Amino acid sequence: MFYFPSPAETDIPFRFMVITTEGNMIARMRLGVNEHEIIQDFKVREKAVTWIDLPESTDHSYEFHYTYYDQDGQAIDR
User: Fold this and answer.
1) Which end of the chain is more exposed for a tag (fewer CB within 10 A), N or C?
2) Does the domain made of 2-76 have the CATH classification 2.60.40?
3) Model confidence band, residue 9 (pLDDT cutoffs 50, 70, 90)
């Protein structure tokens, strides 16, 4: 996973990028961003790039917490 901030002088929101490969076993991610929670689903064993728009932050700082889940809904240990 990578976090790429957008330039502050544009109207483009800050975004979080997730890259998956054919070896991906993650079907869902619960992403905590500051005080917000975002649920993102993924296709298992598929190459893809997913962009997640982040909620606004008055000071452009972010704290992330995340949990991955397999296709049966079980949390995956990191």
Assistant:
1) C
2) yes
3) low
Instruction: Break the chain into its structural domains and give their ranges.
Output: 2-76
* pLDDT tens-digit series, residues 41-60: 999 999 999 999 999 888 87
The residue written with tokens 């995340």 in the block is: 66
pTM above threshold 0.90: no
Phi and psi of 46, rounded to 5°? -135, 135
Tokens representing residue 41 in the block? 């689903």
Q: State the DSSP string of the chain.
A: -EEEPPPTTSSPPPEEEEEE-TT----EEEEEETTEEEEEE--TT--EEEEEEPPP-TTS---EEEEEE-TTSPEEP-
44/73 Cα distance (integer angstroms): 12
Tell me the pairing of strands 48-53 and 15-20. Answer: antiparallel
